[in-house]
Amino acid sequence: MKRKWMVYASWAAALVTGLIVGIVLMVQPGTNKTTGIAQLLSGQADKSAIAMSKSYGLVLTRTYLCGVRDEEHKPVSLDRLPDVMVDYKGWEIVSADASKLILLKREHDLSPACKENGHFGINEDGMLTLFHGLPKEQEVVQAFYRINTAKMEASLSKEEVDNLKRGIRIRDLAEYNSVLSTYGEFQLSEEE
To answer: Domain Bypass of forespore C C-terminal spans what residues (predicted)?
Structure first.
């Protein structure tokens, strides 16, 4: 219970800090003029500025183990922002200003796109690579390490080597880790 309270308190503190910094930044230096949310809070804005200021941008960024990063943009009204933030506990605050808040979540899984069409293969430089689609299409998602192909061909069956050259389909995190583990023993060291 105490930990949950601390999480909520830290979210609230970060949000208030971001809003204050945004307001301070919007005061024009050397003048007494303010813009945007500063006007809203000081009562100097007209109705159209108030309507525009009430919308706040929430940017949800996810990074996946397979190297994919995606963003989702959500407009949120300022008065609903504290309620909405409860849905994103555990997300890191990357940045906050007067117009948007960027949150980051590191997913310990493959992205939906990698699960749908991810293939491990070897690129033309001999690196173990994750492709979106077959390796011959050369749409690289993530490159890992250079493979000692001579050692691999001497240790594995021709079928296993050919499978990697054609592309090994991955559908979940277990298959992803299995391929990395299997071919990791053929990784070239810095000295090689």
So the answer is: 109-183
